[in-house]
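Try this one yourself first.
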């Protein structure tokens, strides 16, 4: 199946046309309008600095339903007497920059380029992209960022410079999102870290159906 090449026109191919690895299209831009359309369609950008934008919609999809959040005994103890403070949107750009600096197994460099930073900062200024943060006194020690549309939060990346800091921010934010009516958290692709917190695979068709609810 040929890979779709995007131009200046605002569109995406049908997600059923994605390659086996989930790659759907190449090219286009990171405009606010295109990013919103992508997330509404179950598509996300992921590419290296020396590549044009690559757009993905994998099957299966890794998600967390807030009511299935798993909190380990050790994390329950930490939450009772937290050494951290939880905040939202106090340091959005700093969270993204920290995520970009994290060394990840099997990856050379980062996909969170300056182009990505600029694009998501625009979404943040429009009240669409959010950061959930873990602070220790006045130091940002963990957090995550993503996009919120309708009843879905699309997680993008997370980091921690202190043990359990990203888990702390994630658990606190998932609980808050659940209280605010969020029904699903898109984790995109599998990680053992998020699996330990209750995330699981669902088919792309089911994922896309739930986006419409």
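Now uncover the answer:
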């Amino acid at each position: 199946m040929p890979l779709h090449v995007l131009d200046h026109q605002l569109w995406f191919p049908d997600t059923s046309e994605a390659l086996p690895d989930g790659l759907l299209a190449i090219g286009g831009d990171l405009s606010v309008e295109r990013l919103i359309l992508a997330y509404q369609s179950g598509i996300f950008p992921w590419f290296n600095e020396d590549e044009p934008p690559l757009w993905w919609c994998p099957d299966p999809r890794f998600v967390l339903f807030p009511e299935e959040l798993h909190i380990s005994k050790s994390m329950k103890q930490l939450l009772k007497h937290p050494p951290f403070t939880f905040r939202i949107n106090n340091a959005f750009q700093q969270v993204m920059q920290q995520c970009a600096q994290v060394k990840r197994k099997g990856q050379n460099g980062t996909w969170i380029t300056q182009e990505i930073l600029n694009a998501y900062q625009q979404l943040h200024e429009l009240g669409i992209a959010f950061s959930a943060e873990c602070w220790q006194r006045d130091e940002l020690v963990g957090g995550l960022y993503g996009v919120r549309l309708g009843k879905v939060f699309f997680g993008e990346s997370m980091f921690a410079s202190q043990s359990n800091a990203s888990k702390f921010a994630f658990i606190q934010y998932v609980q808050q999102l659940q209280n605010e009516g969020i029904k699903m958290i898109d984790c995109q692709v599998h990680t053992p870290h998020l699996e330990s917190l209750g995330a699981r695979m669902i088919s792309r068709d089911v994922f896309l159906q739930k986006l419409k609810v």
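Discussion: The first strand starts at residue 4 and ends at 6. The helical segments are 32-40, 73-80, 92-101, 114-125, 165-179, 192-195, 204-211.
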